[in-house]
Design brief:
Layout (H helix, E strand, L loop, with lengths): L3 E5 L4 E5 L7 E4 L4 E5 L5 E7 L6 H23 L1
Antiparallel strand pairs: 1-2, 2-5, 3-4, 4-5
Length: 79
């Protein structure tokens, strides 16, 4: 499964879907992170509250730019 990233700007919540399976349990950590577990106890999602205040959105944007630049470079080598 590919990593799925979504963001709710109104709630300022960043959600990372990291595994397959139905969410059956959640655990709130003391750093405003919620781990979601499937029926086998595996982590399937990570929710980060107040994501923009933690600087995570800027980090994701920078990662996306770097990935885009890498893809452009690879495509230029192919063509």
């Amino acid at each position: 499964m590919d990593l799925i990233i979504s963001y709710d700007p109104e709630a300022d919540i960043l959600v990372l879907k990291v595994g397959e399976g139905a969410l059956v349990d959640e655990e709130l950590l003391d750093n405003d992170v919620i781990l979601g577990y499937d029926c086998n106890g595996k982590v399937v999602s990570v929710e980060i509250l107040d994501a923009s205040k933690k600087g995570l959105l800027n980090t994701l944007v920078e990662m996306a730019k770097a990935r885009k630049d890498t893809i452009k470079l690879l495509l230029s080598k192919i063509g």
